[in-house]
């Protein structure tokens, strides 16, 4: 083509410039064709705000990739589990999260009043101890002895109190509050790598179950925490 253009009287530089311009124009047109167009607000996707937002953000990412690297040969897309949940389920999760955040903020204020610490000095473990103490009515979950010194239980300077994994962490790998209890250090040492029902005496076990049932019926603890408290054996929990 370049030779023919030369014989037709076109300068070589001019011919190359025309070719580059044509290639650039084709590239721009191709890129526009490859890019995903914005979705119509009246489309079916718009009926679900979560889905619409996720797809629209994906569109922007894909277009940025096309613009920089060209069209990909393939794309693997993982759908977030949240998209599969119903509106009611997501609403419940959101409500619980808001509730947890309010409890956390209130805990920080109360801990500051109890300990004299500035709110900025309050550590996550202090909040955890306070929340467990409140949940348990400031009593050791295993012995039912009253926790009279809340400041000590929260800061644990004297190492009198410990947060115990109700079911040994090595068994179920659960480090959430659903598997934790605030207890006297000596009670935790007695319990060891067992469940509460495996170490409590028959008399204490009966009283313990009554307290756990009361907490559960009063919606103070989750079903998961209830099951942890009531687990009688570690057989089959590996």
UniProtKB/TrEMBL annotation:
Record's PROSITE patterns?
HNH_CAS9
Q: Which NCBIfam families match?
A: cas_Csn1 (TIGR01865)
* Protein's UniProt keywords contain DNA-binding: yes
Q: Which GO terms describe its biological process?
A: defense response to virus
Give this protein's Gene Ontology molecular function annotations.
Answer: DNA binding; endonuclease activity; hydrolase activity; metal ion binding; RNA binding
The keyword RNA-binding is assigned to this record: yes
Listed cofactors: Mg(2+)
Q: Which UniProt keywords apply?
A: Antiviral defense, DNA-binding, Endonuclease, Hydrolase, Magnesium, Manganese, Metal-binding, Nuclease, RNA-binding
Question: Which InterPro entries does the annotation name?
Answer: Cas9, HNH_CAS9, HNH_nuc, RNaseH_sf
Membrane-spanning regions, if any?
A: none
- Name of the molecule in the record: CRISPR-associated protein, Csn1 family
Q: Where is the HNH Cas9-type domain?
A: 86-238
């Amino acid at each position: 083509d370049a030779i023919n253009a030369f014989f037709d009287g076109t300068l070589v530089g001019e011919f190359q410039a025309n070719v580059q311009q044509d290639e650039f124009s084709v590239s721009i047109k191709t890129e526009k064709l490859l890019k995903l167009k914005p979705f119509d607000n009246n489309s079916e996707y718009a009926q679900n705000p979560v889905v619409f937002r996720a797809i629209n953000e994906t569109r922007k990412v894909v277009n940025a990739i096309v613009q920089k690297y060209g069209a990909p040969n393939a794309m693997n897309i993982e759908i977030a589990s949240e998209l599969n949940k119903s509106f009611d389920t997501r609403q419940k999760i959101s409500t619980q999260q808001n509730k947890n955040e309010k409890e956390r903020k209130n805990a920080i204020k109360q801990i500051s009043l109890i300990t004299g610490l500035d709110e900025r000095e309050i550590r996550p473990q202090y909040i955890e101890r306070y929340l467990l103490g409140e949940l348990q009515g400031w009593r050791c979950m295993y012995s039912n002895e009253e926790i009279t010194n809340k400041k000590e239980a929260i800061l644990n300077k004297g190492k009198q109190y410990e947060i115990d994994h109700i079911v040994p962490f090595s068994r179920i790998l659960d480090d959430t509050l659903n598997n934790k209890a605030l207890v006297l250090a000596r009670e935790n040492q007695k319990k060891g790598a067992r469940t509460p029902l495996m170490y409590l005496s028959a008399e204490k076990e009966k009283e313990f179950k009554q307290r756990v049932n009361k907490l559960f019926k009063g919606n103070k603890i989750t079903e998961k925490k209830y099951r942890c408290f009531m687990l009688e054996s570690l057989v089959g929990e590996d």
